Protein: Patatin-like phospholipase family protein
Amino acid sequence: MQNKIMTLALQGGGSHGAFTWGALDRLLEDPRIEIEGISGASAGAMNAVAMSYGLAIGGRDGARQALADFWDSVSTRDLYSFMRPDALSEAGIASQATSSALLKHMFSVTRMFSPYQLNPFDLNPLRDILGKQIDFERLQAEGKVKLFIAATQVSTGRLRIFRNDDLTQDALLASACLPSMHHAVEIDGEAYWDGGLTANPPIFPLLHLCNSPDVLAVLLHPFRRPLTPTGTDEIGQRLSEISFSSTFFTELGGLALAKRETEADPKARGKMHDRLKELRIHVIDSDALMSQLSSASKLNTKASFIHALRDAGRARAELWLTEKFSGADLQSNFDLDQFLA
Structure:
């Protein structure tokens, strides 16, 4: 197959974003794939910026190294040490987080106390990591990949998309600002929370502001859980998944409806008509893996867990490349019509 220009949509999900690292690492090895734009929220935004910055300063190898540097830094820092008492600070996070008593304790603490009580000085190790690894001024000046980073305006609940020219360290931290964990991030007098609350990940900028008809989404939340949760932990986990996926599903439903109406009207003309008609959604999903993990495992930054997720992401990307990228043309592996009401 000849080279294919694509856009990427990267979902957020805490340390589960290491799965996306693995997928991107494998995609970067394939010279046939060229990236025009990337959208992302939370951990997806971190991956998007690290990849784009690495591409700007060192090409594909630079992007792979930038992603590895970011996640290696995450795995060597205890990102949530402020969430638990000193007596638990050396306990570590179990690699099999579904039954970790420590992680359950950390989650229960966030329900009882706000981050303004638990972390009054607004300590955020991600700020230190980004400050050391990403030169945002250089990214703005030299970055060739279009970036669309989602954040949620606290006062209105509206989505804000940060693009290359206004992307700063604070904007990226805002995209990953889980309100139960961190103080809101203020930018130009406005407070922002996690972008996954309003777009996880955003698709429309890739459709409106890029030219490629192919959108590859790397997803961290299961599309479907067949069993109805009955326990308090399971109910809470499913509520979290739904809250961070509903906007994405709604956006896909809108695209599916617009695409169907466009295809049904042969007389319709215009740029957006053509874009919708050509649109192909592709997915690298993590359903099999994530269905085995609890929401609490998103706080697990243990190196062995991070690297296991990376390896799983690489394997899923390898499967997608083998099944969908080896023929005469790139075929979508995702049915938009399933989101039609």
User: Anything to note?
Assistant: The chain is about 45% helix and 15% strand.
